[in-house]
Amino acid sequence: MTVKRRGTPVLDRRRLGVLLHPSSLPGDGLKGTMGAHARRFVDVLVAAGVSVWQVLPLGPPGGGSPYNSPSAHAGDVGLIDLEDLAECGWIGMAEARAALADAAAREMLFDLENLRAALRQKLPSQSAELLTLDKTIANLLRMWARP
Fold first, then answer.
1. Which residues have C-beta within 8 Å of that of residue 112, sequence separation ≥ 6?
2. Which residue has the higher pLDDT, 136 or 51?
3. For residue 3, what pLDDT band results from cuts at 50, 70 and 90?
């Protein structure tokens, strides 16, 4: 059986593909994004004759795993390229650069998010520990978001 997409056969011939999550690409933060590095990667794939790029789930990771996402519909906000948002005018370039510059803050938030995901699996959703952690993360984000 041949599956058709936009009128072209998809399984009519052998294809070359790669399996790579966008977070494995180079980036300005702790992981790659769907920004300039991903677009360059696609250009390299096309030049090499690769016609399939398969990715792992793109939802927010739960417990550090893309297969343990708390949502089937949400995307991982960590894959959003802040410089692309600045180029579109949705945030200022200074805000994007400031957010990218503080590696220690990003690393701490990453660790706190992993801790929160692990605790959500072990504790009731309204436990004092989780509520305190949620407030701590919110306060840090508010503090670091200021210009």
1. 133, 136, 137, 140
2. 51
3. low
